[in-house]
Amino acid sequence: MRTRPDKLTELALPGGKVTVDEYGYLTDPFLWSPAFAEITAAAEGITLTRRHYEVIDFIRAERDEHGITPDQRHVLRFLGHGRGLTKSQAKDALYALFPQGYVKQACKIAGMKQPRAWSTG
């Protein structure tokens, strides 16, 4: 639990400014854009591919449909579904795309708010 308010910063994008917290997470997921994803991914040392965007689009669609960011286990199920991957192989695939983790990179690049507490399932 945090004991102090977030330090907010404005990030200039081609489509306008967005506000991020001190860790680079969007404060309003509805202001996400592919430009935000590209800039944030580059800052994380990631060059986005079609596969990255499949995961990002899944995270965003789940959030839009259910009102919350999906746990990692849902993303692992998505990655494994139709690809014949075991849970372990899906986890390896996720970490190959986002080496520092689901919350640290995938959720941040997908424009989700930084979680206060998180279960990665």
TrEMBL record:
<dbReference type="InterPro" id="IPR042072">
    <property type="entry name" value="DsrC-like_C"/>
</dbReference>
<dbReference type="InterPro" id="IPR025526">
    <property type="entry name" value="DsrC-like_dom_sf"/>
</dbReference>
<dbReference type="GO" id="GO:0002143">
    <property type="term" value="P:tRNA wobble position uridine thiolation"/>
</dbReference>
<dbReference type="GO" id="GO:0005737">
    <property type="term" value="C:cytoplasm"/>
</dbReference>
<dbReference type="Pfam" id="PF04358">
    <property type="entry name" value="DsrC"/>
</dbReference>
<dbReference type="GO" id="GO:0097163">
    <property type="term" value="F:sulfur carrier activity"/>
</dbReference>
<comment type="similarity">
    <text>Belongs to the DsrC/TusE family.</text>
</comment>
<protein>
    <submittedName>
        <fullName>TusE/DsrC/DsvC family sulfur relay protein</fullName>
    </submittedName>
</protein>
<dbReference type="InterPro" id="IPR007453">
    <property type="entry name" value="DsrC/TusE"/>
</dbReference>
<keyword id="KW-0963">Cytoplasm</keyword>
<dbReference type="InterPro" id="IPR043163">
    <property type="entry name" value="DsrC-like_N"/>
</dbReference>
